[in-house]
Each structure stands twice: as structure tokens, then as C-alpha cells.
Amino acid sequence: MRPKGEILPKTKKGLFDHLKKEAKTDEWARVRKEITPYFVAHGIYNVCEAKLPVCIGTALELQFAHSKKRVDWATDGRARQEDAREVIRACTACHEALEHLPEKDGRTGRERMRDAIRAIIAGRGFNVYSKRSAQA
Q: How far, in Å, CA of 92 to CA of 77, rounded?
């Protein structure tokens, strides 16, 4: 039995610790660096693609808006990469509006957000959510 207050020794590093999954925020930072040039090249990096009635549309207030919340991203590698790349550029007001869509017609707000963002992606004529299309 250990005396009260004695600190337990640190355990050794596990053999496979170097293979741990990348954190979602780290993964997104890496993906963001990869896809930003495609938005710049297509002239939409400084444009709010959502253009909802609440749009403020200023370049200083733009951010990437995902079709799925990070907690809903797939867990396997390929599908997860596609989830991370399925984005539009949106001003903060439009991004907030998309994030908080109410339930309607039996569809959750998250489903409506996903469908709205996918429709914007389809309408723009190019996508970056597939590694293959991003490299083309």
C-alpha cells in the first residue's frame, strides 16, 4: 500500500501512441490550408456564398461553414476527409443562421443545414470535398 499523498509513477508511452487519430481541430486546420487556394482561385474566398437575408457579406467576417457539425463527421479516414472538405464560405451572420435552422417538415435543423450547404456547393460548379476533385 502506498503512503497517503505519494504520487504514482508515470506510465511508459504506449507502443502505438504515435498512431493515435488526429484531433478534429488539427485535422480541420490541415484541410483548411489545403482547400483555401481553390476558393481563392475560383474567386469566392472573399465572398459569402450563402447570401441569406441576414447576410453582412464583408470579407473580414467570412469563415468556412461545414455541411455537418464536427461531432457528426465520419470516423473512417476517407469519409472523414470528405466531411472536412464539404464547406462553403459564409459570413458570420449566414453561418449562424445555417447552424440554427429550426426543425421543419420532419427534418432536423442539422439535416436542413447539410442540404442547404450541399445545394450551394452544387450551384457553384466545383467542389473541394473530394481529394480527387481538389487536385484536378
A: 29
